[in-house]
Specification:
By secondary structure, the protein is of the alpha/beta class. It contains seven helices and 15 strands.
């Protein structure tokens, strides 16, 4: 299920947009989203900052008394949140500002189905495709979406698993290695090496009997009898088998 946030200080406009989204759901049986409405940009931002709410799409009015929609979007981007934003407005004055904060679209009120519905078709399809490349992980008591492509390798240390990322950061997970293998199993690029490692084959630089060297410089030492299986698995993946 996806989460769509509506943010508009005008209660009547919120109600109209809610009705249009309900109509969209009725006419698109395969669509699966929940709508949450906010009359204040600060309320929405606070919930996102506290990681109590992670919308996939925000439909936001630009002109609000507590905070301009552009300003709210700028704060959202500074938090590191890159969810899709569609601005709703009666004027195109802030079109260039919308581009600056990576807004997906700029819709002029009053909303009409002929504009909104095709946009929802496109955005929900994009979000669905992107979700296929993310895993949800509980990190330090919060649930976070982690891009599969950013994971270099995972190493088991005692009861904990440590994920290492492309930017050099790492995080600790309180899950079993078996559970992590299960979560990453849908993604062909991951290979388990011995009992202690899962590696992303997209980041392998070279393989020898003694070590697997990743493109970050990290060296992983597989069990002595694992070389043949690791090499065969890697070449099968590399050749698209």
């Amino acid at each position: 299920m996806y989460q769509i946030a509506l943010c508009d200080d005008e209660t009547e406009q919120l109600h109209i947009t809610e009705q249009m989204l309900t109509k969209y759901l009725d006419s698109h049986p395969k669509a699966d989203f929940r709508v949450d409405s906010f009359e204040s940009a600060d309320t929405l931002l606070n919930m996102i900052a506290e990681e109590a709410y992670l919308p996939d799409l925000i439909l936001m009015d630009i002109y609000m008394p507590d905070k301009l929609g552009i300003e709210a979007a700028r704060e959202l981007r500074h938090m590191g949140n890159h969810c899709r934003i569609v601005f709703l407005t009666t004027s195109r004055v802030h079109a260039l500002d919308a581009f600056e904060v990576e807004a997906t679209q700029y819709l002029v009120k009053p909303l009409v189905e002929e504009k909104l519905f095709p946009l929802l078709d496109r955005l929900l399809t994009e979000i669905q495709e992107e979700r296929k490349r993310y895993v949800l992980l509980r990190i330090e008591s919060t649930v976070q979406r982690v891009a599969v492509d950013d994971i270099i390798y995972c190493e088991a240390q005692g009861k904990f698993q440590y994920l290492h990322f492309a930017d050099g950061s790492q995080c600790m997970l309180r899950v079993t290695m078996g559970k992590l293998v299960e979560m990453l199993n849908p993604y062909d690029e991951f290979m388990r090496v011995g009992v202690a490692f899962i590696i992303n084959m997209e980041h392998i630089e070279c393989i020898s009997k003694q070590e697997i060297r990743m493109d970050t410089g990290k060296k992983i030492y597989p069990p002595r009898n694992a070389y043949q299986a690791v090499r065969d698995r890697y070449f099968a993946y590399y050749c698209g088998e």
